[in-house]
TrEMBL record:
One of its GO terms (biological process) is lipid metabolic process. This is GP-PDE domain-containing protein. GO terms for molecular function: phosphoric diester hydrolase activity. SUPFAM superfamilies: PLC-like phosphodiesterases. InterPro entries: GP_PDE_dom (IPR030395), PLC-like_Pdiesterase_TIM-brl (IPR017946). Pfam families: GDPD (PF03009). Gene3D superfamilies: Phosphatidylinositol (PI) phosphodiesterase (3.20.20.190). PANTHER family: GLYCEROPHOSPHODIESTER PHOSPHODIESTERASE, CYTOPLASMIC, GLYCEROPHOSPHORYL DIESTER PHOSPHODIESTERASE.
Amino acid sequence: MVLATSVDDVTAASSLPGPTTLISTGPRPSFLISQLAASSPLRATLEACADQPMTPNSFAFAHRGAPLQFPEHTRESAVAAARLGAGTIECDVTFTKDHELVCRHAQNDLHY
C-alpha cells in the first residue's frame, strides 16, 4: 500500500489508469436503501434514481477518502473516492513533532 504523503501524490493518483468519470458505487447504496421502510417516500425517490447515470459532483465530499474500501488517508482511498464521484476529497490535517503536515484522524498515535 502506498500512503499519500503529499498533495503531489494525490494529484498523481488522479492520473492512474481508469477515468474518474466511470463511477461505480458498488452494492452499499442499494443495501442502505433496502433497509428503509417499504412505504418510505425517501426509499421510492432513491429507487427511482437507481438507473440514472452518475457523474462526479464538486459538491460531493469524501471525508478521509473512501474508508469503506481502503484505509483512510491513503492514495488508494483518495482515488477510490474520486472514482465514486466525489468532487472534493477532504482530510484531517495535523502536525508531527518535527512540524511536518500529515493527514491523520487522531493525534494520539504521533508520539509527541
